[in-house]
Amino acid sequence: MERKASPSCADWVIRSATPGSVERIEAWFGGHGYDPHRHDTYSIGRTLAGVQSFHYKGALCHGVPGNTLVLHPDELHDGMAGTDIGFRYRMAYIDPSLIQSVLGGEPLPFIAGGLSSDPRLYRASEALLIEQQWSPRVVAEMNDYQFKVVRIEGEFIWHSHPETDEAFLVLAGTLRIDLPEGSVYVRPGELYVVPRGGAHRTAAQAETKLMMIEPRGVLNTGHEGGERTAVNDVWI
Known about the structure:
Layout: E1 12-15, E2 22-29, E3 32-37, E4 42-50, E5 52-56, E6 59-63, E7 68-71, E8 77-81, E9 87-94, H1 96-103, E10 115-116, H2 119-124, E11 137-142, E12 145-155, E13 166-172, E14 175-179, E15 182-186, E16 191-194, E17 201-215
Antiparallel strand pairs: 1-2, 2-9, 3-8, 4-7, 4-9, 5-6, 5-8, 7-10, 11-12, 12-17, 13-16, 13-17, 14-15, 14-17
């Protein structure tokens, strides 16, 4: 299915880099988001900022932070900003067979209006909507520097940042930084700074969480570009 996005250059959609049985996306739209369309999956998500408005089963619905969106398979819906400040949201697409296997043959659940304010459902969907790996998210700014958190696993690409040093603070797990002269291992609570222009590759044998400190506008792939380049300046 093709999802048509607004032509505004400020709009963006990030798709999971390694989709498996569950596809995940995060997106921001300043106005029109999607034309009417259907999914053959459950669409479960939440509005992170602004108001997400959509037509669903003959009604105009409004998702706000704190609600859980649950759209039933094969139900027609669209998407747009409910106010002039735009909206940001995160969504996971779940094959109905996965839910059916858990229910043991019981009828598939249906949530009227496509929205729930039940805190139990909100907490239960948290793990589904966790952000994809290798996609840094800004948590704070100081002067021209950004503090970004990211989850990683596996190996990244070799790259460098000719214009700046780059600092890595490990929050959980073990970070391996490959350098031309060898590898260093950084553990929780430890900080390592890759000097300006230094070629390096980050890696982790198991999922690792870390904070990066670097000037605003620095791309995760440096000047290498390519499909591993993450959308920049995305706040958590």
